[in-house]
Amino acid sequence: MITYERDKCIxxxxxxxxxxxxxxxxCDDGYPAQVRPHDCMECGACAxxxxxxxxxxxxxVGCFSALVNxxxxxxxxxxxxx
Length: 82
Ligand code: SF4
Ligand code: SF4
Fold this sequence. Notes:
two-stranded antiparallel ribbon; two-stranded antiparallel sheet; elongated; Alpha-Beta Plaits
């Protein structure tokens, strides 16, 4: 799951372009929105490629982390997808 600082965003659309899970879409106003947050695998590509340093990845809250935690550590760590 990601957050971004709107005042740092220059509306370039890169975060949506680089997301391998297609979780980000660009709104009519040019700003991004994460429309499928639970599909985020927390890869960090959006944050690394954001020219404004606006994107932040909240690690450990997406489905990928939930699967890793459950598989490797036996933790029940649901991500809201059932
Ligand atoms: S990559 Fe950064 S600056 Fe570009 S649209 Fe996304 S949040 Fe805004
Ligand atoms: S961290 Fe990766 S999967 Fe999640 S929104 Fe960013 S680019 Fe997409």
